[in-house]
Amino acid sequence: MEVSTPAILFSTISLLLLAFTNRYLAMANLIRGLHKKFKEEGTKDPRLVPQIKLLLKRLKLIRNMQIISILSLLFSAVSMLFLFLKEEEIGIMIFGAAIGLLILSLVISVIEITMSNEAIKIELSDMEEYLK
Predict the structure, then answer these.
(1) What residue segments make up the domains of the chain, in order of their start?
(2) pTM value?
(3) Helices (H) and strands (E) in the chain — how many of each?
């Protein structure tokens, strides 16, 4: 394996981190807005608390996706170091771990995206009879 091979993950992971960060910021702003609405209206809207709970779960998933992606990036860099030091076997194993972490991050992303559909269902729950 070439020393530069693990570098192929750098741009991929960087773009994923950017996307994850944008999702995190959007989610955090949405939670702040719902919290403000809750403070103003109290429990008048029964959808607020379930929405906030679900958004908090999604926020944790996104944070985990970010951490795992950063670890994948770190493992890629360490893999390059070992390949540079002519420790190819160790470099390949660490690169494999980096790819595994990237895959894990993507799996968690699929779970989070699936959960986002639940948030929409909660928001539209007062329209159920019209949507059938």
Answers:
(1) 10-125
(2) 0.85
(3) 4, 0
